[in-house]
Write a structure and sequence with these properties.
mainly alpha; globular
Length: about 110
């Protein structure tokens, strides 16, 4: 059974992000570069990054499926990870995971 079928059977819902189909920009725009290099979080986050951040915030589980390219992921996936991390989602997810880990340890 495929991963998609297994997830659908076990969890009933899933959301798939195909970065190529979405046309996700793997390169930072000038605005994103200024936002990150000056750490000015008042500057806007691009809509495609916001959409992916919302998906991550709502997810119980995230699976990255990709072909290896010289022992690394494709540039579009790497660029998307850097976008998401740069705009603060990684730190907030780390806090959630630590909280969940602590909760699970108490059980």
């Amino acid at each position: 059974m495929s991963l998609k079928a297994t997830v659908k059977v076990k969890y009933n819902i899933y959301e798939l992000s195909d970065l190529y189909q979405m046309g996700f920009a793997s390169d930072m725009s000038l605005n994103e570069y200024v936002r990150e290099s000056t750490q000015n979080t008042l500057l806007a986050i691009s809509p495609d990054v916001q959409l992916e951040q919302e998906k991550i915030k709502c997810a119980d589980m995230i699976a990255f499926i990709f072909p290896l390219w010289w022992c690394d992921c494709p540039s579009k996936l790497k660029g998307s990870m850097e976008h998401l991390e740069a705009t603060g989602i990684a730190e907030s997810m780390r806090k959630i995971m630590i909280y969940d880990l602590g909760k699970n340890l108490q059980s």
